[in-house]
């Protein structure tokens, strides 16, 4: 009977060891949960980047611009012809930018067509992250009349004349592949010898 207290002491101490073991298991479970959560979050971020980055850097990103280099003829009453430079550029890392045969350019002033180029007989493509240029001649197609002619004459005399250019892209030009739509890009407020404004795809309207 004299050893029972020692046994009772042992019995009373056991839960303390059991509690410590439970606490350690809970702590380990918490660490494992945090590790799993961190892994899941990191995986989601990596997967998202793997999806977004290719779209951002390798998606279609074509840009078109037209510059008016010079005008042939100084008298609007006799018609004006325009020497143009068409620039095709790809800002994508994975896609080229193209125009297909049939592309042509029109020049306007005050909403009146002054000149137009003949349709291109060959396609033109810029490799990814590259640009190419094409010289284009837009021949006189009409002569404005009335107030438009007067305004054009005065603006040319003052050297402040601005023209509008419309670039017509046939089916498949935008992506360099066969498509179902034609595109018309408008570049407005262009001056002779000035910097070519970008007629970006965001400005294009389906015809």
UniProtKB/TrEMBL annotation:
<keyword id="KW-1133">Transmembrane helix</keyword>
<keyword id="KW-0472">Membrane</keyword>
<feature type="transmembrane region" description="Helical">
    <location>
        <begin position="33"/>
        <end position="55"/>
    </location>
</feature>
<protein>
    <recommendedName>
        <fullName>Late embryogenesis abundant protein LEA-2 subgroup domain-containing protein</fullName>
    </recommendedName>
</protein>
<keyword id="KW-0812">Transmembrane</keyword>
């Amino acid at each position: 009977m004299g050893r029972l207290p020692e046994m009772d002491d042992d019995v009373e101490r056991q839960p303390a060891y059991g509690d410590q073991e439970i606490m350690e298991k809970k702590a380990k479970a918490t660490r494992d949960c945090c590790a799993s959560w961190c892994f899941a979050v990191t995986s989601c971020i990596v997967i998202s980047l793997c999806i977004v980055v290719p779209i951002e850097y390798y998606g279609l990103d074509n840009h078109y611009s037209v510059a008016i280099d010079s005008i042939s003829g100084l008298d609007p009453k006799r018609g004006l012809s325009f020497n143009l430079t068409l620039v095709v550029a790809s800002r994508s890392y994975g896609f080229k930018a193209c125009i297909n045969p049939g592309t042509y350019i029109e020049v306007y002033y005050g909403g009146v067509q002054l000149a137009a180029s003949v349709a291109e007989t060959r396609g033109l493509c810029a490799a990814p992250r590259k640009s190419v240029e094409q010289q284009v001649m837009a021949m006189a197609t009409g002569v404005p009349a009335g107030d438009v002619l007067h305004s054009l004459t005065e603006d040319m005399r003052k050297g402040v004349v601005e023209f509008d250019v419309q670039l017509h892209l046939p089916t498949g030009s935008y992506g360099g592949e066969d498509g179902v739509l034609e595109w018309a890009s408008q570049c407005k407020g262009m001056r002779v010898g000035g910097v070519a404004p970008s007629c970006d795809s965001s400005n294009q309207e389906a015809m």
